[in-house]
Amino acid sequence: MFKVTLRLDPEALFVSGAMSQSRLGTVLVGGGSGFIGTSLTAQLRKRGYDVMIVSRKPGPYRMTWSELSQSGLPKNTTAVVGLSGQNVLDPLRRWTPGFRQNVWASRVNSTRSLAEVISAAPVKPNVFVSISGVGFYEPSETAEYTEESAGGEADYMGRLCTAWEEAARGVEDAGVRSVIIRSGVVLGRHGGMIQQIFMPFYLGLGGPIGSGRQFFPWIHIDDIVSLFIFAIENPEVSGVLNGVAPQPVTNGEFSAALAGALHRPAVIPLPAAAVRLAFGETRARMMVEGQRVLPRRPLQLGFQYRYPDIESACREVARLRYTPVKPY
Ligand SMILES: NC(=O)c1ccc[n+]([C@@H]2O[C@H](COP(=O)([O-])OP(=O)(O)OC[C@H]3O[C@@H](n4cnc5c(N)ncnc54)[C@H](OP(=O)(O)O)[C@@H]3O)[C@@H](O)[C@H]2O)c1
Fold first, then answer.
1. Residue 176 maps to which CATH number?
2. CB atoms within 10 A of CB 46
3. Ranges for the DUF1731 domain (predicted)?
4. Distance 308 CA to ligand 1 centre (A)
5. Ligand 1 centre and the CA of 71: distance in Å?
6. N vs C: which end of the chain shows fewer Cβ within 10 Å?
7. Number of structural domains, the chain?
8. Taking the CA of residue 252 as centre, how many other CA atoms within 13 Å lie in the half-sphere pointing to its CB?
9. Is the CB of 325 within 6 Å of ligand 1?
10. Does 34 contact ligand 1 (Cβ within 6 A)?
């Protein structure tokens, strides 16, 4: 005798929007399929949130940008996060007007779309947390920047960050809390810059970029993810937070720490002229120049870093074998 059991799959119901599972609600993450987004969405799920990603590609637990603009926020959305952005330092893409337009629109337009949908929602989420970059501050070997420092107009990256952040602040008129995280270079084994430079450093071919004296604002992936969750869960947090570790280092110090963690030398510099040739002047500036950025507000607000110093962060990312974070 066969026994037939009728079982309702709650996940399928959630995907179809028929039911929300989590008491904590849904976090909607624009660009949640990328390097930072994959780690963030995994942590949010672990904490008990439902997560929906806004992506250019459809799929389970995803909605496309046009679905978002047509149907608005998913039911029970408690927080929205903006992480979209075409990779500026893609070595395979030339710095053409078309590529520049992609870089700009993938950040500013996507952030504006999220802000507009939030503002139009009959039931508002508690918070919109949007990423931006330390490129907001003018590169300098002497200045020291906190969240209160002026910036946002010195060069292409500064202007891009200004437009990006203005788009995110659009929700404030609708009474929604807005947090902007100006992130430094995110260090993680499974993506971003480390993935690009791991092999040369592992083979003992790594070294500083240019003079190595330029500042290198950085943060470990676990800490940037925790900072997003800190911003989502603490109602008193609003405005700009510098998403950097409390220990500022130069590019030379970072290279030495990464090479040291791999038990390799860091003696082969990447000449600034080669970077300019490969990436063009505007993008090369992001690599051969830097900013000394301090996380004054995260520290004042009591945020705790797991990797406050470059040595511990590099030891964590210097593993040859690692388990990739599963995309959501
Ligand atoms: N990683 C860092 O070190 C760092 C530092 C400072 C700031 N940030 C900023 O943080 C954000 C996330 O960084 P990440 O390293 O996680 O980025 P990522 O992995 O390169 O990409 C994030 C997501 O952006 C979407 N995207 C890419 N190109 C796009 C385009 N042309 N139009 C629309 N969407 C596009 C993609 O989502 P779909 O393919 O699903 O559409 C992608 O998964 C970016 O805006 C980046 O600029 C990153």
1. 3.40.50.720
2. 8
3. 270-316
4. 24
5. 24
6. N
7. 1
8. 8
9. no
10. yes
